[in-house]
Design the sequence.
């Protein structure tokens, strides 16, 4: 993959670049502030942008705001936010558009898992830290469609929200791939998400899990 890195910490930026380069990816730009990040993406057309949420010039949510700007201009670009904090203001819109990940730096403990998350995001999938998912959860309604799900189906849906594939879910829950497929089919059916050429049903299911309005 061709990757742009937006990170204001030079030490972390260089370490991440070395990690990705050693994994066979091409680092086309490394920048330390949000305006330079937006310009680098426009100039290089990467497959993936890895972005720190808090960057100069304001050191607040500049990276997250830049991510929204980049997504609007480059809808197919994979975007992975990295942060020590959970920022939800701009994240919901990015989750809904797919090809998005949000991982907390202190909780990235396995290099292979991290590289797998990058691949999922770059190919249109998602990768959300469980703490991010918990913060994105909206208030539940009395007529919440998730009330029809079994406990196991809720576990499967929670892992779907993290961006796990059926194989990944099976490994986490010690289930067979076929059992997970059955659970996913049941979840989509109970949530009223019929087959469609226009909608990504897994993404819609995750949005419903997060309490966001969906019109399937």
Sequence:
């Amino acid at each position: 993959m061709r990757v742009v890195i937006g990170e204001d910490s030079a030490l972390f930026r260089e370490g991440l670049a070395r990690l990705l380069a050693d994994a066979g990816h091409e680092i086309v730009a490394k920048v330390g502030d949000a305006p330079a990040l937006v310009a680098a993406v426009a100039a290089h057309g990467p497959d993936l942008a890895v972005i720190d949420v808090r960057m100069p010039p304001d050191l607040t949510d500049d990276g997250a705001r830049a991510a929204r700007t980049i997504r609007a201009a480059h809808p197919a670009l994979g975007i992975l936010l990295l942060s020590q904090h959970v920022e939800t203001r701009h994240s919901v819109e990015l989750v809904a558009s797919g090809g998005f990940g949000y991982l907390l730096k202190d909780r990235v403990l396995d290099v292979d898992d991290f590289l797998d998350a990058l691949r999922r995001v770059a190919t249109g999938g998602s990768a959300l830290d469980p703490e991010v998912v918990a913060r994105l959860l909206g208030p539940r309604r009395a007529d919440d469609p998730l009330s029809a799900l079994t406990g196991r189906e809720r576990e499967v849906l929670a892992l779907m929200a993290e961006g796990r594939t059926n194989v990944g879910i099976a490994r986490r829950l010690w289930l067979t791939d076929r059992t997970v497929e059955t659970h996913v089919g049941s979840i989509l059916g109970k949530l009223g998400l019929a087959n469609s050429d226009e909608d990504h049903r897994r993404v819609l299911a995750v949005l419903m899990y997060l309490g966001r309005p969906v019109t399937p």
Summary: The beta strands are 2-6, 26-31, 48-52, 78-83, 100-104, 126-128. The chain has a mean pLDDT of 87. The CA atoms of residues 146 and 209 lie 7 Å apart.
